[in-house]
Amino acid sequence: MDISLIFFASGVVFGGACAIIAANKNRDPLGWFALGFFFSIIALIVIAALSPAEKSSGDSRSKRRQGNGEFAPNPKDPERPWLG
After folding, report:
1. Ramachandran angles phi, psi of 66, nearest 5°
2. What one-character DSSP code corresponds to residue 82?
3. Per-residue pLDDT tens for 3-47?
4. For residues 64 and 30, what is the distance between their CA atoms, to the nearest angstrom?
5. What DSSP character marks residue 78?
6. For the CA atoms of 32, 36, 37, 38, what is the dihedral angle to 10 degrees?
7. In terms of DSSP H, where are the helices of 1-84?
8. Which of 48, 84, 46 is nearest to 67 (CA)?
9. Whole-model pTM above 0.70?
10. Under the phi-then-psi rule, with left for phi > 0, alpha for psi from -120 to 50, and beta for the rest, what region is 55?
11. How many C-beta atoms lie closer than 10 Å to residue 17's C-beta?
């Protein structure tokens, strides 16, 4: 068996494990997959030790300030909450 195949397989395993843990902790799974792929056990230890990230109340588009910066409490159009 070729050594590069072993490195690739271990990268996929550690990357997948990091991605699963990151998704459960509300962190970026794709970024943690890449870190786990390249840094294997070190990335797995780091993501396991991190505390869960706080969920944001909305996506970055809804956080943009419009007008006075106040959003309607229950918007009729969830894509444009500043309309009210």
Report:
1. -130, 130
2. G
3. 999 999 999 999 999 999 999 999 999 999 999 999 999 999 999
4. 25
5. T
6. 110
7. 3-24, 29-39, 41-49
8. 84
9. no
10. beta
11. 19
